[in-house]
Amino acid sequence: MTQKPHTLTSHEDVSHDSLDGLGYDWNWVANPSIKPRYPFKVYLPQTTQDVIEVIKEVNQLRQELRIRSRGHSSNDLVLTDGAVLLTEKLDQLIELNEAGKTVTVQAGFVLARLDKYLGERGYGLPVIGDHSDITAGGFASVGGFSPASLSYGMFVDNIAALEYVNWDGELIRCSKTENRDEFYRVITGTGQYGVIVTLTLNIMSIDKERTILELERTFYKNVDDFIEATRRFVHDPPPPADALMERIQWIDLPTPGGNITFGQLSTYKETSQTGWKALRNTVEFGYLHGLGRWAGQLPDKIDQLVKMLGTAGVMLAPRYSSIKNVETLTDKVLDASVGDPTRWLAVISPVDEYEVIFRELYRLCLEYRNRHEALTLIALYVKALRSEYLDNLVPGKRFCELLLYLNVNTRAMTEELTESLVSRIDDLCIEHGAFRYMHTKTVKDPQRRRLIDPNAAYNREDSAVHDPKEVQA
Ligand SMILES: Cc1cc2nc3c(=O)[nH]c(=O)nc-3n(C[C@H](O)[C@H](O)[C@H](O)COP(=O)(O)OP(=O)(O)OC[C@H]3O[C@@H](n4cnc5c(N)ncnc54)[C@H](O)[C@@H]3O)c2cc1C
Description:
Blueprint: E1 41-43, H1 48-61, E2 65-68, E3 83-86, E4 93-97, E5 102-106, H2 111-119, E6 123-124, H3 136-142, H4 149-152, E7 159-166, E8 171-175, H5 180-186, E9 194-202, E10 204-205, E11 212-220, H6 223-235, E12 245-255, E13 258-270, H7 275-294, H8 300-315, E14 320-322, H9 323-333, E15 342-350, H10 354-370, E16 375-384, H11 388-391, E17 399-408, H12 415-432, E18 435-436, H13 446-452, H14 454-458, H15 468-472
Parallel strand pairs: 1-3, 2-3
Antiparallel strand pairs: 4-5, 5-9, 6-10, 7-8, 7-9, 11-13, 11-14, 12-13, 12-16, 15-17, 15-18, 16-17
The structure holds flavin-adenine dinucleotide.
Flavin-adenine dinucleotide (FAD) binds near residues 130, 141, 190 and 191.
């Protein structure tokens, strides 16, 4: 009998390329009893020519093809009963161009591995996900945020060029200046337009492991004070000299002694580099990463305690952190696959609507917790952003990200209830001109989906990005 991935104790133990894993996406972390949906046929291309052959074959056979990187999305994007193309073996580094400060990789290249390779040569990716298995093609197909998005935008802002094979089997090269429409069609496209085969990414000179940043943090007990401070922050973020990276959270944790609620707004700025700060980074993160490593290996009750300590560790993050430790803090300390099942739902909100959307999301979550007992921990993560991609999404509007990190009581949180929560969040977005981060669960109805998908906004006939002159103006 085969073992289902959700029976594994910790995300660290999940084999991302197991056959069993192909029946699931990240939904299994929110709903461990979800039924697998296995593909009938799997393609494992290694080269661009292989991808062209795959597309020719599925066209001949009139089959639908899904593209799957490592299945970290939770919106049914990589699941099918038909044919799936895995990018697993599209994992070669093609060129490091030190003079042009770019690196070119095949789309299945795992970004953490790439950043390590670059780090050994004095470079790094400006924006990278916090998790060690996300691929270049998968991140490009959803957008890509990090604590450094405050300074460097989204991952897609840092793509210099890409090549993809469209559904007619043609190889197309595009960038912001060459085949611009194609470029904006494909980035954040969740695999709708064809297979991205290579990406050329901007890199920067940086030592992420050894450069220590200093944290400045304000705590908030009262949610109104938190919303007011964070509203000002997302509206008018400080310049990179004052805040290179950020971490903002509101947390509402039920405990036997009552609910613990508080928020924190942390910014990380450059500081003088001393041995003492480096030592504190090593020791304090050694403890936090130890929690993350042990999570999932212990008896249930102790595991819950470790998870609570991890949550506290994220909220009370050390004062001195290497850039790498800021980038990976949440994932390395809090294994989302340990403890109560976890659901992520993310909104890309206009900064002008931030307050109303924050309040409404929080109110909805409290309703699902108080009335339906379907949620336990409610955490809202906020990101202020400087992103060319988002700035051009709707002329005159700027955006920030709001991520709900919810622990789920699976006995109460039925599929219907999950869908009703998602549907209400999507309605809220439609009402306030917000978008969803499409790797997290959204409604399925294509018409409503078009209204909340940033990629669809870019691909509307009247979209400003189709005219480079307008964008530059
Ligand atoms: C533990 C964890 C931590 C995360 N941390 C972050 C984070 O810090 N920041 C953030 O922004 N997101 C984060 N995410 C979300 C993550 O970025 C998305 O799940 C993203 O989709 C990348 O995952 P993947 O490479 O496994 O892609 P998949 O989930 O396999 O694919 C995602 C989408 O991209 C399409 N796709 C994949 N490869 C290609 C390709 N070569 N060509 C065309 N389409 C393609 C797929 O069809 C699908 O629609 C995290 C997710 C998890 C589970």
